[in-house]
Write a structure and sequence with these properties.
By secondary structure, this protein is α/β, with parallel strands linked by helices. Helix content is about 40%, strand content about 10%.
């Protein structure tokens, strides 16, 4: 069985990416299996909507999630786990050496502007880019990084980027990956009602639109701190 972890920052196109793979007949997708683990372990002051619901709905023990979910049984030969990189706290990372790993990145200014609409005053640990940089270095050293996908590059040419990704995953590209039915999906996490409004209105990867968000002075400082990490990751990204 091919197990694929997609390590994303928050407020990226990770849900659309998950929906894309859900269109494949050979693939099962799993939405953020480590979310409850993260909520039970984090010292972040950011208040996540629906925290109690998530903690009740999911296994809170990350090591158990790795054993029982990531390396559990599935009805298809391919399973894709949509993951948030900042969920990787208080965990042994060695399990990633037994899976394919894709990193999904986005310009930090766009992440921060979007995130702050739901959770005020995010910090570096909430944005996840520094953690992505750390995970990138780990995966590179362990020779288990399959690809880096940048949101902008993917939206500029979804078919080209997804075709290249499928080649790296040793999968045949399927045209069905480019469109899906609008609305909620059965694989959505219980938190979808708080975060997935835009993607539920979509029927495919939305065309890229250049954004120049205005940030507060505090968030501007955060964006500047994130930028060097993003630029290093972008250098390794598949280009459109």
């Amino acid at each position: 069985m091919k197990r694929i972890n997609v390590w994303s920052s928050p407020r990226n196109i990770s849900t659309a990416f998950m929906y894309s793979f859900a269109q494949r007949s050979d693939t099962t997708v799993v939405d953020e299996p480590l979310y409850a683990h993260y909520l039970s372990k984090t010292d972040s002051e950011a208040g996540h909507p629906g925290t109690a619901e998530v903690l009740h709905a999911q296994q809170n023990d990350g090591e158990a999630v790795v054993r029982e979910v990531i390396f559990g049984e599935f009805p298809t030969p391919v399973v894709l786990f949509k993951q948030m990189t900042h969920h990787l706290i208080h965990l042994d990372w060695s399990f990633m050496q037994r899976t394919a790993n894709v990193m999904l990145i986005r310009n930090p200014r766009e992440i921060i502007a979007s995130y702050a609409k739901v959770i005020a005053n995010p910090a570096m640990q909430d944005i996840g880019i520094e953690k992505q940089h750390e995970v990138f270095d780990f995966l590179t050293k362990k020779h288990c990084l399959t690809a880096v996908i940048d949101a902008r590059e993917l939206l500029l040419n979804p078919k080209r980027v997804m075709t290249q990704l499928c080649e790296r995953l040793n999968l045949d590209f399927d045209e069905k990956m480019l469109t899906w039915r609008p609305g909620a999906r059965p694989e959505d996490g219980i938190w979808a009602k708080y975060w997935y409004g835009n993607v539920h209105r979509s029927s495919g990867f939305e065309p890229f639109v250049e954004k120049k968000p205005t940030l507060s002075a505090e968030l501007e400082t955060l964006a500047e701190r994130c930028q060097p990490f993003y630029e290093k990751l972008y250098q390794a990204a598949i280009k459109s």
